Amino acid sequence: MATICLLKYLTIDYVGSIIWRYDYNDKAKEEIIIMTDIIARIIPIILLISLGQYLRYKEFFHQKTIDEIKNVVINIALSAVLFIAFFNMDLMAEYFLVFIIIFLVLIIFFLIGLALNNYQQFHHPLMPFITSGFSFGFLGIPLFTTVFGIENLGMLSIIGVGHEFFIWILFYPAMRMRFKNEKFSVGMAKDILFSPLMISIALGMFFNIADLGDWIQGNAIPNGFYVTVQYLADLATPLMLIIIGFGLRFNKRYMKQSIKFYIIRMMIILTIGYATKYLIIDRIMPSSEMFNYAYFTFLILPPPLSLSIFVGSYSSKENEELANNTVVLSTVMSIAIFILFMLFL
């Protein structure tokens, strides 16, 4: 019922209000066309997430099956998306500076979380992991590509490179060392260097820099491989949104702490994030409206959706439930903010 009401607002009520305001003149027609296009891109987000909730309600899948599908999506489909994004991206020297800046900003987010742990009212073992890390692949990519198309994913991927390095070099190793008392090892380094996402990014950039596009398009076998990668990439967005919908479950017991975490996270990220953009990134990057949209999309993203899984592996059941509730709350807020942003853009 809630989904139907929202769809009614996005279509009949909203477009009708535009017609009434402008008396259907040329300006109204143009705005209706633009708004219709935006709404048409937003509706799949709502429907696919709702489908995931319906599949859980009807018990079409068990959580174990969803986790297995999630591994396929992350390791194969999402890797294909990132390969294509970096392969087709118009690489510029400024982008590599942005990679480094984003990596350093994420470290600052993490250090602020550590600093907050020194104060009793903020102290919690999850704090530095709540204030840093984003669901870049699992939510950022499907949200952004659904509205702006995979052809513009390069703008978001510029940010994503620095984020992936941060996640694999600092975030997950720090979690293992914090909750499992492990020390940094050669095994951790191998996990970082040979993760499917890092390999796909490296290969995409290599093929791009080597300018192999014409060679791939002109030869049947490499072109066949590229088309296969495109097919795999097309699976990523719908499957990820369905999986997100399947996992949206709140636990009232942890809601107060989750809201506290969310407010702290957004205050830190939006303040430091936009200060960095205005003072540093905007002086490096050429002016780009699409990059502005990508940057906003990135900053409103929730913590990694896999956070609760890792916390459950390395910490207590209570911390796992709290992490999951915080991620779910942040995910719902991110989707709502993104939709509102698109409507009033």
TrEMBL record:
The keyword Plastid does not apply. Keywords: Membrane, Transmembrane, Transmembrane helix, Transport. This is Membrane transport protein. The keyword Transport applies. The chain crosses the membrane at residues 32-51, 72-89, 95-116, 128-147, 153-171, 192-210, 230-250, 262-281, 293-314, 326-344.
